[in-house]
Amino acid sequence: MTLVSSHLFKPCLTFVFLALFQSHTTFSALILSLRNHRSYPQHPRPMFQTNRTTCALFAGTWVRDDTYPLYQYSNCPVIDAEFNCQMSGRPDSGYLKYRWQPLNCQLPRFDGLVFLSKMRGKTVMFVGDSLGRNQFESLICMILAANPQTQTQMNRAMPLSTFKFLEYGVSISYFRAPFLVDVDVMQGKRIVKLDDIAGNGNAWRMADVLVFNTGHWWGYEGSLRGWDLIQSGGKYYQDMDRLVAMEKGLRTWANWVDSNVDITRTRVFFQSASPDHYNPNEWSAAATATTAKNCYGETEPMKGTTYTSTYADQMGVVNEVIREMHVPTYLMDITMLSELRKDGHPSIYRGDFSPSQRANPQKSADCSHWCLPGLPDTWNELFYTVLFY
After folding, report:
1. 195: CB partners within 8 A, 6+ apart
2. What pLDDT is recorded for position 24?
3. In whole angstroms, what is the distance from residue 236 CA to residue 257 CA?
4. Taking CA 265 as the corner, what is the angle to CA 259 and CA 271, rounded to the nearest 5 degrees?
5. Which of 90, 107, 137, 372 is in the most buried spot, having the most CB atoms within 10 Å?
6. Which residues of the chain have pLDDT under 70?
7. Is 12 left (phi over 0), alpha (psi -120 to 50) or beta?
8. Which of 125, 112, 4, 102 is nearest to 54 (CA)?
9. CB burial class (10 A; 0-12, 13-18, 19+) of residue 43?
10. What are phi and psi of 8, to 5 degrees?
């Protein structure tokens, strides 16, 4: 988060809020116009091309496989306490024994030594919210499992953390940017700047592989909301239609990618929304008004190959923005396969939870992030496949 000196924020807060409310009516009309005259197309499944076949990587089923997980939590020192479910006392382990099976092909087995060899001297950077951090830590663990004695170096900081495999000159980084666009603090107010990404983008320029994600933070309300004001088109708003805000931010991101990425050097990926599981009506016909509104006690994936439309509008925006970009950007459509994994969340098994939080799943359960080992390992198997095959 960038601290901006107060002299750059010339309007006093009274003027800002006056401008905010004066422009609200005009902006509301814009929202209604976009809502009423625009439809977002359904997102087509990305296709994985090989010389011999076409593989729909993201359509398939979860199958039991006792050769999983790909690593043990006790052998991976980088897993944050909030993702380390087994260390935090989760009593079941069946959720670790599932492999993603695409409908018409087999995923190659992840090989950490192959990853290091092919990426020698290069940098992979995950950019986005904490789901990107989930995947960042997963990838490190998967690589370490193949070469546990290799010399490494870890630097944890905010907003950039980096893990280096020194022998290979490979860096795996995570840059925290929940909205992708810049968030500045001015006179104590957090301002999401929908038209500005230069501050964040400076940290991404030299990466060889960029994996972006955003989604959850655009919908947060109340104390979870990540801003006090939104800046767009030179005006300030206390709030706006979240889908409109997300699209504006994504177009700023897309313009940055088109203007700054050298396609002879850098490959760009965008990861679709990672679903949460707070609504048991999505997977249980027997759910009632008194059913716990969380994933606590879930130990098996859902059946089937389809998912609810919770993220359909967001996916429509993402699909449209990426389709209009000049720089080739591969959409990793992990939403459906992740939707089926109601069993994969930390729930109350987070190392940073207090005894009182653990005793109250109804209020505290984390059904947004994912256990490690767990589902993000599959995201990285798919990433590995698209990157090298």
Report:
1. 181, 231, 232, 233, 248, 252
2. 42
3. 25
4. 70
5. 372
6. 1-53, 286-291, 305-309
7. beta
8. 102
9. buried
10. -80, -15
Distance CA(132)–CA(281), nearest Å, equals 27
pLDDT value of residue 303: 83
pLDDT of residue 283: 82
Strand 48-49 and strand 2-3: the pairing is unpaired
Question: For residues 134 and 376, is the Cβ–Cβ distance under 8 A?
Answer: yes
Amino acid sitting at position 290: T
Q: Which residues contact 336 (CB under 8 A, 6 or more apart)?
A: 58, 59, 305, 306, 307
End-to-end Cα distance, the chain: 37
pLDDT at 93: 96
Element (H, E) at 116: helix 112-118
**Residue among 7, 1, 23 at smallest CA distance from 226:** 1
Checking 233-242 for CB contacts under 8 A at 24+ apart, the result is: 233/195, 235/19, 235/20, 235/23, 235/27, 236/16, 236/17, 236/19, 236/20, 236/191, 237/20, 237/23, 237/24, 237/27, 238/20, 240/27, 240/31, 241/31, 241/34, 241/35, 242/218
Task: DSSP for 94-114, please give it.
Answer: GGGSEEEEETT--PPPP-HHH
Provide the sign of the torsion angle of the four alpha carbons 228, 230, 231, 236, taken in this order.
Answer: negative
| Token reading at 259 | 């203007």
Asked whether 184 and 98 are in contact (CB, 8 A), the reply is no
Angle at 11 between CA 24 and CA 8, to 5 degrees: 120
**Cβ–Cβ < 8 Å for 314, 286:** no
Q: Which residues are catalytic?
A: 130, 366, 369
In Å, the largest CA–CA distance within the chain is 64
